[in-house]
Give the backbone structure.
Amino acid sequence: MIKKRTSTVEGHRRKFLAIVDDTPESTRALLFAGLRAVHTGGAVVLLYVITPSEFTQWIGVENIMRAEAMEAAEVALGKAADFVRDKTGIEPQVVIREGGRSEAIVGLIEDDEDIAILVLAAGTDKEGPGPLVTALAGNAAATFPVPITIVPGNLDDESVAAVA
């Protein structure tokens, strides 16, 4: 069952969720989400997902890897938040989750009823739009809890601004 969104209720703001990762096109999603938030009086949520380690049999190694992954997530979110601030003046909310990417995204959307739109950017290489876009915009889109906006990864800042 899909939970009712509260982004239009008085005292709430529509939030645009963007995923932070190391893909070159991710800044397109960050920029679009930030500019849409500016134009609509909304907010931006940046999510970084740490995928679980495969080294669970050695607790010490797993703890070191988890700490390193958390540090990398904080650095990536810091850079992404700086980008959103610099381009839009919005102070984004940052979130780190562990687990599978799709599950973490859906879990955050279920936890935060003000998230109204997921913003993704499509990859520009010949292998397709990217695994996250493929996974979420495919069959899962029919049952996804919020609309998904896919920004072409080849758009420059001016082009993104024109459509945001």
In short: The longest strand covers residues 43-50.
